[in-house]
């Protein structure tokens, strides 16, 4: 690196596709540098010179010769975020045990197949809040469980998304479950997918963290009923998806803080009618349920503000909409057999209808006008045509 860089007041530096760069020497980077991004430097071997900077954000991508970040086990104590992508020869973060990094909050490592251990990172980074590990085929799962030291961990994913996701890296996921998810006492976001054995997920000593605020379940099979989730008194968001054997909506009564419920891609559900036990839901989303024919008994959802239904081509009826006294937004997309809606509540502020030809036909009167049933709604959109005061604007 050119020495004159140090003389500049640079806070952010990005180096792209510099094939001649072998290393970053000591005392060459600006003392003001806070963010460093290195992309596609094929011959880069190590970064000894970053320790002398107040660096907070370090991102390294596609550096195929990089085997470790520093042979002297030194990274800036100010570092908050460390992200490494597609460095396929990276075997270790540092050549010796990591020193304590009290500032590190985010660790993201993606597609580094030769990396074997991260235990020292977890043991020495007490402030870590978010960890993402994807495509680490040789990561030794028994070296993963310095996780119990991360008392502030809120996000942990073994999947290509920023929520806690178990199931993609199967062996590591199983070890993590058996170790005990409840030990992650600050965890807020959890996704479970691909597990068919309920005893692996739920037993007396395999509870989920009561700190959870959102839960996404892909394949509901591991859960006998929603009562298995009854300890999740802080849960506000629940998603159930890709559950081909689920035939009815479970009782949500034990989830006392639930505000948002989404159900998607559940092929065997034919009707939805069992929501009487829960009145605090504010958002209800139903999508890609091709055999769903009717939705009834929504009237008990007196707190419901948003109802979205999409890609339910065989849906024929939706009952009790008029009783939803808090409903403000109603969206229905691609419900080809839906002929009519009951009276809509006066609270409704927005109605969006797409590809519901029978419903549109029932409402239409003359040229460019619609029936009085929707005249009171301030914003109505039908097949991308915006309507105000029952007048269609093309």
What does this structure look like?
The strands form four sheets. This protein has a twelve-stranded mixed sheet with strand order 8-9-10-11-12-14-16-18-19-22-23-24. It has four helices and 24 strands. Residues 390-394 have low confidence and may be disordered. Strand 8 (165-166), helix 2 and strand 9 (189-193) form a beta-alpha-beta unit. The protein has helices at 119-123, 170-179, 198-201, 357-363, and strands at 12-16, 35-39, 57-61, 81-85, 106-110, 130-134, 155-157, 165-166, 189-193, 214-218, 237-241, 260-264, 271-272, 283-287, 294-295, 306-310, 317-318, 329-333, 350-354, 364-365, 369-370, 379-382, 385-388, 391-393.
Residues in helices, as a percent range: under 10%
Helix-and-strand structural type: mainly beta
Please state the CA-atom Rg, rounded to the nearest Å.
27 Å
What's the rounded overall pLDDT mean?
80
Report the uncertain regions.
Answer: 390-394
Count of β-strands: 24
Euclidean distance between termini CA atoms: 59 Å
Strand adjacency order, main sheet: 8-9-10-11-12-14-16-18-19-22-23-24
Order of helices and strands: EEEEEHEEEHEHEEEEEEEEEEHEEEEE
């Amino acid at each position: 690196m050119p020495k004159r860089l140090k003389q500049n007041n640079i806070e952010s530096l990005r180096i792209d596709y510099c094939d001649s760069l072998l290393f970053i020497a000591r005392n060459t980077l600006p003392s003001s540098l806070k963010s460093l991004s290195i992309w596609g430097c094929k011959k880069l071997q190590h970064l000894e010179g970053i320790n002398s900077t107040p660096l907070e954000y370090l991102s390294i991508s596609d550096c195929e010769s990089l085997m470790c970040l520093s042979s002297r086990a030194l990274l800036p104590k100010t570092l908050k975020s460390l992200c490494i992508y597609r460095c396929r020869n990276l075997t270790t973060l540092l050549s010796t045990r990591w020193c304590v990094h009290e500032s590190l909050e985010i660790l993201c490592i993606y597609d580094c197949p030769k990396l074997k251990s991260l235990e020292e990172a977890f043991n020495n980074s007490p402030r870590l809040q978010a960890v993402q590990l994807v495509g680490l085929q040789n990561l030794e799962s028994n070296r993963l469980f310095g996780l119990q030291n991360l008392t502030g961990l809120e996000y942990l994913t073994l999947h290509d998304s920023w929520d806690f996701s178990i199931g993609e890296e199967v062996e590591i996921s199983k070890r993590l479950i058996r170790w005990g998810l409840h030990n992650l006492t600050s965890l807020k976001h959890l996704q479970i997918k691909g597990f068919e054995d309920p005893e692996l997920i739920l037993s007396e000593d395999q509870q989920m963290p009561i700190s959870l605020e959102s839960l996404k379940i892909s394949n509901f099979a591991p859960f006998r009923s929603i009562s298995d989730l009854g300890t999740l008194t802080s849960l506000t968001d629940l998603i159930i998806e890709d559950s081909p054997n689920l035939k009815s909506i479970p009782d949500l009564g034990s989830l006392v803080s639930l505000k948002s419920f989404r159900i998607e891609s559940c092929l065997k559900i034919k009707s939805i009618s069992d929501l009487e036990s829960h009145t605090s839901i504010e958002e209800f989303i139903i999508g890609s349920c091709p055999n769903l024919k009717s939705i009834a008994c929504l009237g008990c959802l007196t707190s419901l503000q948003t109802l979205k239904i999409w890609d339910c081509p065989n849906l024929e009826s939706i009952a009790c909409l008029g009783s939803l006294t808090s409903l403000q937004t109603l969206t229905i997309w691609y419900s080809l057999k839906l002929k009519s809606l009951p009276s809509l509540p006066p609270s409704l502020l927005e109605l969006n209808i797409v590809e519901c030809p029978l419903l549109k036909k029932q409402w239409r009167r003359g040229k460019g006008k619609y029936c009085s049933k929707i005249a009171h709604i301030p914003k109505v959109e039908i097949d991308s045509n915006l309507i105000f005061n029952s007048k269609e604007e093309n």
